[in-house]
Design brief:
31% helix, alpha/beta, elongated, 9 helices, Quinone Oxidoreductase, Chain A, domain 1, 6-stranded parallel sheet, 322 residues
Length: 322
């Protein structure tokens, strides 16, 4: 079969022949039609992701999920640790999710990863309640745009978003954002905007995609003053602006604050089961019904080497069609 293969750690994937996957008793063969390329896939291919730290590298098919057809013609989405950017793949039967007929393979392959961090963070880490106020920090990327829509679907009454791209920020109003704040503001102006909002409509949940300095400013802005403070639950989904922050112990002592993370390794087995059986099917149906919008940039498998390191325009998810 043809596949996108990393022959040596750190190299760009090549379009080449690869042996058909062997199907174990607990697995099903899938004829892949589309597979999205994410930061995770690039990091794993380069050997820089924490999940590859103890792996001995050998020629490997890239990709961690995809969409395609079972042998009986059923349309499915699937996870697989054995590579997905190939004409054929295998997946554990428990890692396969039905796809509605009205949803195309491109969106079906790209949507689950985009909704995972926000949906799991809002549902399990922060336990978002209907009518609460949500601030999404770094909302102009692919996953941030999806997070705005997921928060709205989960009942958020007010959604505040931050980002650096002014045009992308304005477009978030169409997806459900109520208020936008530019990360290009100077520190004091940014903190004052957060303080004013927090005073008028206390922020219940912060869903953060970028970490770094902006989170330091956010936490400083909602810091309590010694009186009873409003409880804010912050969940980290990404770290595009840096992996570390400076956190004053005074903020923790003076503020009713909960900090957690939403990502691989932070979810319980039961939460992951619900992701597959409830959350992803719910999001697929929302997309099929036009209630959840996502844009993709589709390319052909044979062009994998050319496009692997390209910057995808307009904040779309790169999808390889097979």
């Amino acid at each position: 079969m043809k596949a996108a293969i990393v022959f040596e750690k750190g190299e760009i994937p090549q379009y080449a022949d690869f042996p058909d996957p062997e199907v174990q008793d607990n697995e099903q063969l899938i004829y892949v039609k589309a597979a999205s390329i994410k930061h995770l896939d690039r990091a794993r291919a380069s050997g820089k992701h924490y999940s590859t730290a103890n792996e001995e590298h050998k020629p490997t098919v890239v990709g961690s999920d995809g969409a395609g057809l079972l042998e009986d013609g059923s349309k499915v989405y699937f996870f697989s640790k054995k590579g997905t950017v190939a004409e054929k793949a295998v997946a554990d039967k428990k890692m396969i999710v039905p796809v509605p007929e009205g949803l195309d393979f491109s969106i079906a392959s790209a949507l689950p990863n985009a909704v995972m961090g926000s949906a799991m963070g809002l549902k399990f880490k922060t336990q978002l309640k209907e009518g609460e106020t949500v601030l999404i920090n770094g909302a102009t990327g692919v996953t941030g745009k999806i997070a705005v829509q997921v928060a709205k679907l989960y009942g958020a009454k007010k959604i505040i978003v931050t980002g650096r791209n002014e045009d992308a920020l304005k477009s978030l109003h169409e997806l459900g954002a109520d208020e936008v704040i530019s990360l290009k503001l100077d520190d004091e102006d940014f903190k004052q905007r957060i303080k004013d909002i927090h005073h008028q409509t206390p922020i219940d949940v912060v869903l953060d995609y970028i970490w770094g300095h902006s989170v330091e400013l956010l936490l400083s802005a909602i810091k309590g003053d010694g009186n009873f403070s409003h409880k804010t639950r912050l969940v980290s989904v990404g770290g595009m602006s840096g992996d570390t922050i400076q956190l004053s112990s005074q903020i923790l002592r003076g503020t009713d604050l909960q900090i957690s993370g939403s990502g691989l390794g932070s979810w319980s087995p039961e939460e992951f089961r619900l992701l597959l059986t409830e959350i992803i099917p719910e999001m697929f149906q929302a997309a099929a019904d036009g209630k959840l919008k996502m844009e993709t940039e589709n390319v052909d498998l044979k062009d994998i080497k050319t496009i692997w390191e390209n910057e995808i325009p307009n904040r779309k998810r790169l999808v390889v069609l097979i």
